[in-house]
Design a protein that fits this description.
By secondary structure, the chain is α+β, with helices and mostly antiparallel strands. It is built from 16 helices and 16 strands. The structure holds adenosine monophosphate (AMP).
């Protein structure tokens, strides 16, 4: 038997209601903040991700699903959405149509990571990007939207961590200071950190290895070397979060792996999902649009992982959904009425009721059992003496009441059910 690929998951019908519930909250929160949905292709030219995410990141250096198509072009399944959204933004000159574009998305992403709880190779994200504004309110808006979505899902154990990476010029100065601090300890760093020392030194703060952690414990922090403008920007983000009632903590070691971030970075972590605890992350990326060949346009965004969020919801029992109900199940009492039953079902379905009937030639008892199993609100009994008299029987499955109707009076039956 062929099985699903490691790290991919099926979302079976029993789980779909949760996904739809989350999607409806995502659509409604983004809608309330006036963000418009954008859908971009699942694969793009490999160069797009290499350039936007950065060659030195884990995503680009070891996790992308990259392949040559039949014409020899190198394509990659999207590992995240920002690159595709910014590409579309530039390609369709969205900045010419309006100064500020507030966009959101939801869909599958692909990374060849080691599968484990909360880490998949195909996983779903929702997220948002605001392109065209450098207002700190937009940074705060991203954090607020992410927080509100998680809060509306009923999640309680949430920690919002924020930091500022400043502008590239002050960051470059700081990187030299960090390099100087680390020089004497270089030989003690883990192999991975030694590599990052040259390629992506800020990411040494992400290491989980004890030896690295001890060395980084006393490292100088970027926040202490920020220029005034960046500090003011950060201050305004914090004030806006306070105004929005979003609890947060400043974590000066929160650096995130992507090269194009400027100023604000943030992460929301859950206390309910074990070691892969980041539910979402994002930040400002004022350099990205230009880097990808567009105008010098600032941007800010975030992405959130749906599987992890739903896992947190499950562990916190943060919401309960009502069992799905069917409006009507049609029970045929005897053979030969299939056409009448089918036509009746179709008529009610076309009027907007959810209706099902027996397709397996089951006994009346088995059909009633089926009606109960699928939570039918009403059962329409067709056949027997009543049918000979020109009547059919509608049974209310909640209170057991039965009522007879003329068999062609579907409008009256419809009104009783609706
Ligand atoms: P990133 O795009 O790496 O900043 O990730 C944003 C969010 O996506 C994370 O906080 C996770 O919730 C989720 N995520 C990232 N990678 C994976 C993965 N391999 N499996 C499941 N969720 C993921």
């Amino acid at each position: 038997m062929i099985k699903s690929v490691a790290g991919t998951r099926d979302i079976l019908p029993a789980d779909i209601a949760k996904w739809k519930h989350l999607q409806s909250i995502v659509d409604s929160v983004f809608g309330n903040f006036n963000y418009k949905e954008i859908r971009t292709p699942i694969f793009e030219e490999t160069a797009l991700f290499a350039r936007s995410i950065g060659e030195a990141t884990d995503i680009v250096s070891k996790e992308m699903y990259t392949f040559l198509d039949r014409s020899g072009e190198s394509l990659t399944l999207r590992p995240e959405m920002t690159a595709g959204v910014v590409r579309a933004f530039i390609e369709y000159s969205l900045d010419k149509k309006q100064n500020l574009n507030k966009l959101y998305y939801i869909g599958p992403m692909f990374r060849q990571e080691r599968p484990q709880a909360g880490r998949f190779r195909q996983f779903y994200q929702f997220g948002a990007e605001a392109l065209g504004g450098n207002d700190p309110l937009l940074d705060a808006e991203m954090i607020t939207m992410a927080y509100d979505i998680l809060a509306q899902l009923g999640l309680k154990k949430l920690w919002v961590k924020i930091n500022s990476l400043g502008v590239p010029s002050s960051r470059e100065k700081y990187k030299n200071i960090l390099r100087q601090y680390l020089q004497p300890y270089f030989e003690k760093l883990t192999a991975e950190s030694k590599k990052r020392f040259d390629t992506n030194i800020l990411r040494l703060f992400d290491s989980k290895e004890e030896t690295d952690l001890m060395i980084m414990e006393n490292a100088p922090l970027l926040i202490e070397y920020l220029d005034d403008e960046s500090l003011e920007h950060f201050e305004k983000v914090k004030q806006a979060l306070l105004a929005a009632g979003v609890p947060f903590e400043v974590n000066s070691k929160l650096v995130r792996g992507l090269d194009y971030y400027t100023n604000t970075t943030f992460e929301i972590v859950s206390g309910s999902v074990g070691s892969q605890s980041a539910l979402c992350g994002g930040g400002r990326y004022n350099g990205l649009v230009k880097e990808l060949g567009g105008n010098d346009i600032p941007g800010v965004g975030f992405a959130a992982g749906i599987e992890r969020i739903l896992l947190a919801c499950e562990n916190e029992k943060s919401f309960a959904l009502e069992d799905e109900k069917l409006d009507l199940f049609i029970v045929s009492i005897e053979k030969g009425l299939e056409n009448f039953a089918y036509r009746t079902a179709i008529q009610f379905r076309r009027k907007g009721l959810s209706v099902d009937l027996d397709y397996l030639s089951r006994s009346v008892k088995a059909q009633m059992r089926e009606a109960n199993r699928i939570n039918a609100k009403y059962v329409l009994l067709i056949g027997g003496e009543e049918f000979e008299k020109g009547e059919i029987v509608l049974k209310n499955m909640i209170n057991g009441e039965q009522k007879n109707f003329a068999k062609d009076d579907l409008e009256k039956i419809f009104l009783s059910i609706r």
